[in-house]
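Entry 14. Ran structure prediction on the chain below.
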Amino acid sequence: MVIFNEVISGQIAHLIFTLLLGLTLGWFERKNPARDIKEYKEHLVEVYAFVLLFIVALALGILIRHIQLNHTLINLHARISNIPWYILVPATSLIADFGNYCAHRLLHTQSLWRFHRWHHSPEYLYWFSGFRGSAIHILFMAATSMIILTFTGPNPWIIGTIVIQGLSAQMLGHINLNINIPFLEKILVLPQYHRIHHGVDRKLNDSNFGFCWTIWDKTFK
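Output, structure tokens:
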């Protein structure tokens, strides 16, 4: 019961942060949309997808917390906590993003596409669209972060990096807004970059797999 209360508190905090960030980005989206979309008609679908995400994340959180309490892992967590934040943050960012990139490519293979296809189904993209995904899709995309958290423990720098990077990339990749900053476009996955990935042409879907950083698409062509 203690673990459940701990995890549910974290999930509620995560939910509040998600809504605040989403509403803020949504305000910018309405002020300067990339596409003139008069009405979004799929709000209930997005809400269903978000509730599904919350339930799967809650179950994963409880499982991970049980594993974290293993005596051997607790000793490892203590050693990792001594690593400076300026090493933990960039290392976590790159490892988590590379894992998301690999998971994303796997979901586009013939055998797994059926679990990812729903994510590509929105008629229009906006900041809330990126949360649409099946349970299997969610598990694949969360796998690397869950592995990181299992071995590093409840480290605030690592949790903060994963949460902030994950939510920001998810929303910015799908937001109906153009961010025209040439320098950032070379290193970050911005809306116009990820929008190609959601093109109606199936061939375009198999490109621009990057989640936060563009380095993986460039490295693996």
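The mean pLDDT is 90. Will compare against last week's run tomorrow.
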